[in-house]
Amino acid sequence: MRHRSVVVPSSRVRWLAPAVLLALLGVSPRVLESRASAAPGPVAAPPGVAPGGAPGIAPGGAPGIAPGGAPGIAPGVAPGGPSSGAQKDDGPPAPDCPPATFPDDGACVVMPDEQAWAEESEGAPEGEVIAQGHFEKSGRWLVYDQIPRRPDRPADYEAYVFPIPGVLPGGKHVVSGYDLDLPDHQQRRGRMRAVGHGAVDIPQKRGTPIPMVPLEHQVGDAEVIHVGKLMGFSVVTRHTLREGGRTRDYVLIYGHLDAAAEGLLRGATLRAGEIVGYVGDTGSPQLVHLHLEARRLREGIDGSKLAPGRILAPDVSIVCDPRNVLPLKK
Ligand SMILES: [Zn+2]
Question: Which CATH superfamily includes the segment(s) 130-324?
Answer without folding.
Answer: Glucose Permease (Domain IIA) (2.70.70.10)
